Each structure stands twice: as C-alpha cells, then as structure tokens.
Amino acid sequence: MARLLVHVEGQTEETFVHEILRDHLMAAGYRDVSVRLAGNPRKQRGGVGAWQGIKRDILRHLKEDRSAIHAMIVDYYGMPRDWPGREQALRMNSSSVKAQYVESVLLDDIMEAMGGGFDPRRFAPLVMMHEFEALLFSDPDGFARGIGRADLVPEFRAVRQAFQNPEEINDSVETAPSKRILRIFPGYEKPLFGVLASLEIGLMPIRRECPHFNSWLRQVEALVSLEF
Questions:
Q1: What does the alpha-carbon distance between residue 184 and residue 202 come to, in Å, rounded to a whole number?
Q2: CB-count burial class (<10 Å; 0-12, 13-18, 19+) for 111
Q3: What is the SS3 assignment for 108-132?
C-alpha cells in the first residue's frame, strides 16, 4: 500500500492532519501518513509563502521518494499573487470552480517540472475556499462545545445558515471565516481553538457539509492501493 505525505501551511492544519485525517487514512489502507509544513518545516507561524519556495520543497520530496503520494492543503484566502492560477481565479464566480481551477493549474506546474514520466496521481492539492476556519462551521454546535462557549451556538448557526455550505463563506478582509469568528469570539486563537473545535466536530460532519473537501479526501482515499 502507498505512503502519504501531506504538505500544509500552518500548525493548525498540521495538527488537523495528525489528529483527524491520519487515523482515518491509515484505516483506509495507507501504510504511513506524515505531514510537513510547506516550504519550511521549522516555521512557527501559519500563512503560505511564495509558490516558488513551496514548489521547490514539493519537487524535492517527489524526486527523493518516488514511491510516495503527496497531498497539499492550502487556503486560497491570503495566497500570494505568484501562485499559479490565483489571479485568473479572481474573475470566476463560483468558489468551487475557483478552487478546482487553481488545483488543476498547480498540478500542471508540478507535472511540467517533474517531466514526462511523472504520474500526476502522485500529487493531490486541496485549495480550501476560503480558510481552514470555514470547516469549523460544518457543526456550529460542536464548534461552540469545542471552544467551551456553548452560549455562542446561535451566532455560529447564523453564519452557517447564511450560506449553502461552509466552503462558500466569503473571503474579504471583513467577511472571511476567521474574521466572522473574531467578531463573535474576540479571544479566538487559531492554533488552540481551531484544533479544539475540529477535534470536537470530527471528520464526518466536515465531509458531509463541505463537498469540495470531501471530493479531495475521496481522491486521496482512492490512491491508497497505488504502487509506483
């Protein structure tokens, strides 16, 4: 069975992979699931860097270990302008279309750099629209329980109910998921409360409520039996 390395942009996403996705994917058949902060394994702050640095890191790992599958989890919100497809996606209306477009362009860029013998199934990027925090609105009640603030359930529910699904919660400076959370709960700290909330919510509600995330996870699950 295959091994999986997941490149992520920050500590919260790193913990999300370790604490929630890893056991699920190991149960699905992966013989190992590891995670790495994209571009710099020692960085302490979140936020994705310039594409060329991230790309070099991914290419190095793809070339060093040609038997592993590589995934990536990154937010579109705050993505630097040099990321392939990011600027073109701004002109698209649908969040899911934006995400899928950027993912396809990133894969094309990696494929070109790796050369003709590269199997594109070895790189599975997930562009989350718009931030990791959007996933937390998959279960407003669980979100509130996870951070120890059951009194905030009505406000979290109101945000969720305003959108077709959590991934549609929009990404302006004022209305990004994290900004909405901070207005409701000014003490929100992503590395602590984001992890606590996601552990309380669990994977199944996120899969059920977030179709793009679920599609990516199904793709990763389907790669488990590949051998290179």
A1: 22
A2: middle
A3: HHHHHHHCCCCCHHHEEEEEECCCC
The tokens for 59 are 């290419």
Distance CA 71, CA 124 (A): 4
pLDDT value for 44: 47
How far is residue 8's CA from residue 142's CA, in Å, rounded to a whole number? 24
Q: Are 114 and 105 in contact (CB under 8 A)?
A: no
pLDDT band of residue 171 (cuts 50, 70, 90) is low
Q: Which amino acid is at 222?
A: A
- How far is 226 from 87, CA to CA, in rounded Å? 34
**How high does pLDDT run on average in the chain?**
91
pTM of the model: 0.93
Q: How far apart are CA 68 and CA 3, in angstroms?
A: 5
pLDDT tens per residue, range 179-216: 999 999 999 998 899 999 999 999 999 999 999 999 99
In order of 60, 125, 219, the CA distances from 121 in angstroms are 17, 10, 9
Between strands 123-128 and 3-8, the pairing is unpaired
CA distance 37 to 40: 6
Radius of gyration of the chain (CA): 17
- Which pLDDT band, with edges at 50, 70 and 90, does 227 fall under? confident
